[in-house]
Specification:
Blueprint: E1 2-3, E2 6-8, H1 9-12, E3 17-19, E4 22-33, E5 38-46, E6 51-55, E7 60-61, E8 66-67, E9 74-75, H2 78-82, E10 86-87, H3 88-91, E11 94-98, E12 103-111, E13 117-124, E14 127-131, E15 136-143
Parallel strand pairs: 3-8
Antiparallel strand pairs: 1-2, 2-12, 3-4, 4-5, 4-10, 5-6, 6-9, 7-8, 11-12, 11-15, 12-13, 13-14
Length: about 150
């Protein structure tokens, strides 16, 4: 799902991380700055079964891959970044209230090319609506599967 230059965060998680066509791993999560609503980077499960961190700006999101210029861009200290960010996996299914008080559930994020969260895709009843992050209150304690 792409809207006006934005790209679905969950779709980015489906892309392999590659270096000159060689698969290095696959993203298993996306970490978001909780204050700025900007993507910090990806948690990547590498071929050696170790999770590493890839800074968002170091990955070139193509149609069919996340291209990196060096394997050295995959950093070992994932926990450092996890402690300072929100996990996309934790955000999905979280309860959210928009600026006019309508409740909903976070289903995805729309990201600009620079990593800024353009909108939260929020399910409200049977409809999916785009809600600006600044106009939403997300409750990570309450998760819904509905």
């Amino acid at each position: 799902m792409e809207t006006m230059g934005s790209r679905s965060a969950t779709e980015l998680l489906l892309l392999p991380v590659r270096l000159r066509g060689i698969r290095l791993g696959r993203p298993v999560d996306l970490l978001v700055d909780p204050d700025e609503w900007r993507v910090v980077g990806f948690v990547v499960l590498c071929g050696d079964e170790i999770e590493r961190f890839l800074v968002f700006a170091a990955a070139d999101a193509q149609e069919d891959e996340l291209d990196v210029s060096s394997a050295l861009l995959l950093l070992e200290d994932v926990d450092f970044y996890r402690e300072r960010s929100r996990s996309l996996r934790a955000l999905l299914g979280s309860a959210v209230v928009d600026r006019v008080g309508r409740p909903g559930v976070v289903r995805d994020l729309l990201l600009r090319r620079d990593g800024t969260v353009d909108a939260l895709l929020v399910q409200q009843g049977d409809a999916i609506r785009e809600v600006e992050p600044a106009e939403a209150t997300v409750d990570l304690e309450h998760v819904s599967t509905a």
